[in-house]
């Protein structure tokens, strides 16, 4: 989808570029040719009045072609020519109603399809600009006139063309960066993948070894704790035994002392009795 969208954008941009170039050529050509644009023998012209309605109307764009041989023009053809209206030389496009040939000269009587009478002035051979190609674009003549103004040319031609060149420059730089990146062959790519897998497995092995070491450390700590507990129990037992031995000795000493004192008391009683008797 992204690729298709990119292709569509490229087509539109190139179409805009071609259109812009054609308009540019049209503008500069008209400035050098009395206001008439000539593109390889074809002249786009804007219809100024409705005198040819309904064939084409005011504001339409008509395509006029140069005529190599005026003697091939005939009644019914639509021609574009110079004429005078109220003392001003203008460009007009009307239909031929009669071909006038006198000696080696040729002229044409013309009339607008919407007019009731023929044009008052005949068109001489030197005033003929070209013949209508039967091709017209409704309403586009006004747009072309706007494009030929400075404002229209800047907004509709220069700005889009500048954007186009910026986009193409960006694409060129992007392509250049991609081109400079090192190209990796399939074998190198497989080798990189293999190393990545080995490093991953090695990392897992190191983790397992660390876990085993930690388990061993825990077992050692438990064994130390058990040994310490055993030592504490033994010490407590020894102390208890010692205390018990000391207690027995003390009891024996007390008993012996009591026995001695009893004997002394008995002796005293006997002696007292003897003295009394």
Quick structural summary:
The chain is of the alpha+beta class. The chain has helices at residues 2-32, 140-147, 150-180, 186-276; strands at residues 42-46, 61-65, 78-85, 88-102, 105-111, 123-124, 128-137.
Category from helices, strands and their pairing: alpha+beta
Secondary-structure element sequence? HEEEEEEEHHH
Cα gyration radius (Å): 60 Å
Intertermini distance = 143 Å
Into how many domains do the coordinates divide? 3
CATH topology of the largest domain: Umud Fragment, subunit A
- What share of the residues lie within helices? 55-70%
Runs with pLDDT <50, length 5+?
none
Tell me the strand order in the biggest sheet.
1-2-7-3-4-5-6
In terms of quaternary structure, what is this? single chain
Largest sheet: 7 strands, antiparallel
Q: Give the name of the CATH architecture of the largest domain.
A: Ribbon
DSSP E strands, number: 7
Give the percentage of residues in beta strands.
15-25%
Look at the structure and give the CATH class of the largest domain: Mainly Beta
User: Outline, from the CA principal axes?
Assistant: rod-shaped
* Overall average residue pLDDT: 78
CATH superfamily of the largest domain: Umud Fragment, subunit A
């Amino acid at each position: 989808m992204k690729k298709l969208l990119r292709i569509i954008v490229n087509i539109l941009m190139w179409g805009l570029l071609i259109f812009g170039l054609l308009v540019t050529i049209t503008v500069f050509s008209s400035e050098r040719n009395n206001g008439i644009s000539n593109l390889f023998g074809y002249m786009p012209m804007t219809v100024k009045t409705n005198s040819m309605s309904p064939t084409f109307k005011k504001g339409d764009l008509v395509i006029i072609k140069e005529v190599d041989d005026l003697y091939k023009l005939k009644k019914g053809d639509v021609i574009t020519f110079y004429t005078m209206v109220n003392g001003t030389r203008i460009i007009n496009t009307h239909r031929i109603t009669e071909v006038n040939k006198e000696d080696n000269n040729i002229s044409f009587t013309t009339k607008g399809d919407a007019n009731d009478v023929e044009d008052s002035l005949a068109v001489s051979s030197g005033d003929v600009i070209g013949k209508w190609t039967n091709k017209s674009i409704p309403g586009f003549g006004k747009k072309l006139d706007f494009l030929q103004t400075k404002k229209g040319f800047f907004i509709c031609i220069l700005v889009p063309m500048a954007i186009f060149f910026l986009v193409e420059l960006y694409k060129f730089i992007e392509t250049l960066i991609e081109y400079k990146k090192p190209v990796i062959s399939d074998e190198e790519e497989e080798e990189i993948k293999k190393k990545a897998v080995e490093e991953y497995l090695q990392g897992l092995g190191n983790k397992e070894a660390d876990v085993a070491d930690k388990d061993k450390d825990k077992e050692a700590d438990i064994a130390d704790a058990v040994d310490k507990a055993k030592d504490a129990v033994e010490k407590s037992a020894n102390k208890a035994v010692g205390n018990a031995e000391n207690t027995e000795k003390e009891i024996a000493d007390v008993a012996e002392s009591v026995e001695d004192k009893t004997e002394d008391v008995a002796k005293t009683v006997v002696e007292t009795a003897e003295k009394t008797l």
